[in-house]
Amino acid sequence: MSKIKFFSSTTILFVSALVLVASGLGLYFLSHPISLAQIFNHHQPGTLTVHQPSSELVNQPFKVDIQMDTAGQAANAVGVYLHFDPQRLQLLNIDTTQSFCQFYPEKKFDNDLGIVSLACGSPHPGVTGKNTVMTLEFLPTAVGATSITTDPKSKILLSDGKGTNILYNPPVINLNILQNL
User: pLDDT tens across 144-162, in order?
Assistant: First the structure.
């Protein structure tokens, strides 16, 4: 009596390779989230970038520029939500004079909770390319490493009649606060 061969070695190799590729893609998209709208509508991902020094001196104010890049697409609204350690940093000011925005439904901060909330926009077509959304002025209050993180609810919305979010990979700002000599 002969045994029935269910899978050939070629089939097992093919299925193993397919599982490996699917796992790799899954891990990539978990670490680099992208919305279904970006995949199916072929929108380029937008970015938020931060321009700041890597280290600051305690009790010496410093500025952080939050800039968006629409990757050549027209965007007319942005929401930037940040968290910071209120034991190490205090926010002194939010400056939006360089922003494309003309209205601000939300522009506030809370030094007790360590949050910054900015939601703003302008009429169609908005802005294309790079724009400084806000400049934050912080006062470091304690020595040590700290960070400013971008909340996942942050968005860059296209002026496409649908408000398609194109924000991709929101930044984390790492700072080292040094003793003032």
Answer: 999 999 999 999 999 999 9
pTM: 0.75
The whole-number pLDDT of residue 105 equals 97
Phi-psi map region of 161: left, alpha, beta (phi>0 left; psi -120 to 50 alpha): left
The answer to whether 134 and 95 are in contact (CB under 8 A) is yes
Report the residue count for the chain: 181
The DSSP letter of residue 2 is P
Q: Is 167 exposed, middle or buried (0-12, 13-18, 19+ CB in 10 A)?
A: buried
Cβ(83)–Cβ(112) under 8 Å? Answer: no
Pairing between β-strand 62-84 and β-strand 155-158 as defined by DSSP bridges: antiparallel
| Domain locations in the chain as residue ranges | 45-178
| Interatomic CA distance for residues 141 and 138, integer angstroms | 9
Q: Which CATH architecture has domain 45-178?
A: Sandwich (2.60)
Residue 181: CB atoms within 10 A of its CB come to 4
